[in-house]
# Entry
Amino acid sequence: MSYSYVCERPSRRRVNVRISGLFTEENMPSLREELEAIGREEEGKPFDVLFDFTTAEQCEVRTRHALLELQRMLKHFPGRTAYVADRPQVWGIALWVIHQADDGRARAMVRVAHAERWFAQDDDQITTCPGPAR
# Structure
């Protein structure tokens, strides 16, 4: 099973990371380097990060530690982080990462549209974002 990710900048305030295939811990260094470079480029200006796992075929459970380190890094940049996952296993990993990172500006969601709505809001409250179906 192969892995790929696409990192897009639809705007200066937004980074979309779409993950496909098998997501493993070994895949993290290049993604982290790319996000660190964007953070340096933005020089403290807020930008939101959307991780789209809806096309990921699988996310290894051990990957959660590498995602946690990535989220801890993102916590130091102004902006929000959304993990979009429609599979319970990935949803659970996203919730664990957010909880362990203690990042009040990170959320797990099931639809990209939910994340886009949340990014557009002025406050951090989420009004309607149901969890993944079983």
